[in-house]
Inverse folding.
């Protein structure tokens, strides 16, 4: 081959190699700039580089804060893992290629590691024959170095430095960006922490003020009542001192006279008070020492006690054990509304469709939430001439949640206060009214069952609180063994009838539904009878009587949505086998049926 | 003190608390009126001056509704400033203002005194309140 041709071939080969290297650099650049998390970026980078360039090993060192060491932060494969575990680091400016690259911001090449002086022999990378160390620098400041290693001798040329350094520069930018991002995230997290702490501190401060305001009058009221009662006893004793014996000797007056002696002994100050009040004009006297005044002080004490108890309830509420079960949230809401002690001129508009699916929640806790929201709405409409609360329940668009809106036309909530609503002890009612525990308690309770609560409001235009409650998934896995038996189900509430029938039938039982006129031909032909304690169109207790007459009351389980102690006791005394609380889950129904049948069979 | 009937205006938005303070002061022989916020208080002060039966002392809560009726921290100091201004504008006899709050804090007390309060007491400390009121009114038993 003529020399010109050879020269041309070499040039072509070089050009091709350079093109390949640049293509690899571009590929690496494209892949790494997408990764924004530094912890993810570094390990991925070494893999991306090795794959793109077909290197034996690549590792990324980052210079520590003191700029003493370049610390290995990512390395390809098992060797990388071992070295990171051993906290592999090389001194900046030390006797290693990484040390030199980081100190001088220059690439270093070792074409044959066996003959190289500035080479750190590494037992976990035995096949390395040539290595290149590339500084990672941003604007002249070295932040680390990249090592790439090959199993071939003289794998790198001086010309390769240009393209590999271009790649390393891109990597440096990516690392720097990711690190800055992390710093920003950290700073942001710190800011959020500070803000949260500030908010809690403010709320706690308000709470201290509030509790102070509520409890302060108690002491004064008690002191006044004590003084009033003592003064009255002594004043009456004085008044009857000169009365005829027939009056004085009345037992109650004798008692008062005796007690006045004790009062005067223990509290000589009472003489001064009596002397003073004797000088007062009647209207002033009435204002100072009257039953009305005593009653007012008692009222102040009672008020404070109620509010303090409310704080207790609000604090304990979310901590109470929750027993989530399939629940008809609409019913609970309706119940809360009917028990709500509303103002006479207040209108409550209900829009609660019957066909809503059941949610998974604890009815008692739900009731607390609804009552809280109604009370809040009530208080927000303090000065509203036509107060109205709208309560609406509906299914979410995806069908997975039951949504409930409680809307009032009250004073609304200022935008800057919306976020703070959920902080414990925060209250929009300032330092008056309740302690602001209600909403944070609501949120905690809902959190526990996978629900949510949010608010939309504009100052002066009312507010809407929206709750999201997860729909109960009837496809829950039940681990109760299937059974056999003929069961009569007496429950005229469609949803429950369907639920119980499906549950029992799919577990091997035969289910008969009571006729529409509630007539049953032969109670004794069933293995078990389940009777709802509150039938919509019939008297449940009458049915129990019929069952008792048929001699099979012991084969009966009563289902009760209100299984109070009295009721449970009555039904048990009447002879029913057991009482099952409603709402029940598939599992609780199946367990109950199985246990009941086992007991019946044993007897 | 039986010779002069001192008129005191109590300003606080906490119903039971203000009622309790009112009763306590009434029993001590003071003539007491109450207001639930800045605007109402200022109106009463104005009316009393017009009726030539001005108040001798105002006791204000630090945190309560401001002149716009909005619950606000240090709203009591706004009333204090307004009273000082009013007294000056109308060339009236000085009207001492005692501030009270639930905060048992040096900084809060300092802030109130710096703003021109005659005195400061922590809520619920009835004896302290009575001593400070008597002192402000120069009453000696």
């Amino acid at each position: 081959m003529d020399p010109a041709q050879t020269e041309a071939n070499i040039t072509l080969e070089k050009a091709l190699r350079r093109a390949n290297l640049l293509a690899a650099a571009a590929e690496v650049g494209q892949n790494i700039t997408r990764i924004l998390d530094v912890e993810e970026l570094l390990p991925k980078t070494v893999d991306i580089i090795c794959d793109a360039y077909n290197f034996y090993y690549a590792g990324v060192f980052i210079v520590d804060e003191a700029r003493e060491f370049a610390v290995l932060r990512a390395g390809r494969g098992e060797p990388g893992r071992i070295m990171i575990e051993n906290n592999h680091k090389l001194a900046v400016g030390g006797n290693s290629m990484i040390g030199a690259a980081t100190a001088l911001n220059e690439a270093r090449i070792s074409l044959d590691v066996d003959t190289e002086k500035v080479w750190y022999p590494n037992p976990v990378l035995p096949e390395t024959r040539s290595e290149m160390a590339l500084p990672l620098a941003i604007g002249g400041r070295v932040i680390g170095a990249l090592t790439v290693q090959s199993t071939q001798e003289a794998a790198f040329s001086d010309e390769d430095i240009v393209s590999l350094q271009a790649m390393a520069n891109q990597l440096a930018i990516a690392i720097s960006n990711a690190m800055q991002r992390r710093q920003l995230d950290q700073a942001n997290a710190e800011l959020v922490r500070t803000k949260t702490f500030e908010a809690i501190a403010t709320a706690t401060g308000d709470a201290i003020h509030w509790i102070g305001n509520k409890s302060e009058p108690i002491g004064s009221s008690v002191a006044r009542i004590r003084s009033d009662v003592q003064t009255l006893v002594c004043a009456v004793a004085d008044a009857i001192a000169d009365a005829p014996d027939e009056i004085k000797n009345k037992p109650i007056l004798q008692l008062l006279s005796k007690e006045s002696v004790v009062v005067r002994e223990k509290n000589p100050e009472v003489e001064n008070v009596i002397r003073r009040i004797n000088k007062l004009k009647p209207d002033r006297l009435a204002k100072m020492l009257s039953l009305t005044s005593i009653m007012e002080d008692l009222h102040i004490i009672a008020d404070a006690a109620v509010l303090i108890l409310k704080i207790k309830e609000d604090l304990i509420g979310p901590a109470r054990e929750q027993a989530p079960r399939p629940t008809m949230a609409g019913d609970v809401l309706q119940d809360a509304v009917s028990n709500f002690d509303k103002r006479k001129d207040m209108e409550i508009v209900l829009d609660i469709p019957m066909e809503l699916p059941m949610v998974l929640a604890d009815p008692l806790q739900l009731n607390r939430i609804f009552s809280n929201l109604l009370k809040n709405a009530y208080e927000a409409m303090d000065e509203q001439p036509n107060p109205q609360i709208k309560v609406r329940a509906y299914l979410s668009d995806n069908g997975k949640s039951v949504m409930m809106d409680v809307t009032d036309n009250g004073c609304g909530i200022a935008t800057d206060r919306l976020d703070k609503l959920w902080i414990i002890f925060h209250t929009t009612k300032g330092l008056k009214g309740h302690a602001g525990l209600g909403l944070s308690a609501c949120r905690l309770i809902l959190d526990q069952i996978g629900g949510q609560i949010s608010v939309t409001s504009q100052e002066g235009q009312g507010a809407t609180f929206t709750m999201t409650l997860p729909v109960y998934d009837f496809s829950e896995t039940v681990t109760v063994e299937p059974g056999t038996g003929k069961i009569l189900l007496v429950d005229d509430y469609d949803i429950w009838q369907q639920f119980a029938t499906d549950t029992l039938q799919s577990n091997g039982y035969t289910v008969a539904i009571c006729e529409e006129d509630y007539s049953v031909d032969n109670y004794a032909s069933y293995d078990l009878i389940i009777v709802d304690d509150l039938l919509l169109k019939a008297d449940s207790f009458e049915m129990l009587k019929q069952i008792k007459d048929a001699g099979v009351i012991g084969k009966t389980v009563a289902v009760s949505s209100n299984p109070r102690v009295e009721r449970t006791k009555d039904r048990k005394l009447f002879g029913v086998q057991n009482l099952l609380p409603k709402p029940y889950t598939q599992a609780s129904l199946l367990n109950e049926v199985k246990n009941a049948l086992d007991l019946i069979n044993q007897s | 003190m039986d010779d002069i009937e001192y008129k005191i205006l109590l300003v606080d938005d906490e119903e039971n608390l203000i009622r309790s303070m009112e009763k306590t002061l009434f029993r001590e022989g003071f003539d007491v009126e109450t207001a639930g916020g800045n605007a109402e208080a200022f109106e009463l002060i104005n009316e009393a001056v017009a009726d030539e039966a001005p108040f001798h002392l105002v006791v204000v809560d630090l945190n309560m509704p401001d002149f716009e009726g909005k619950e606000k921290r240090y709203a009591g100091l706004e009333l204090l400033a307004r009273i000082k201004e009013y007294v000056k504008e109308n060339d009236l006899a000085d009207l001492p203002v005692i501030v009270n709050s639930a905060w048992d804090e040096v900084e809060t007390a300092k802030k109130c005194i710096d703003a021109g309060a005659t005195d400061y007491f922590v809520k619920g400390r009835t004896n302290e309140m009575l001593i400070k009121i008597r002192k402000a009114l120069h009453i000696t038993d």
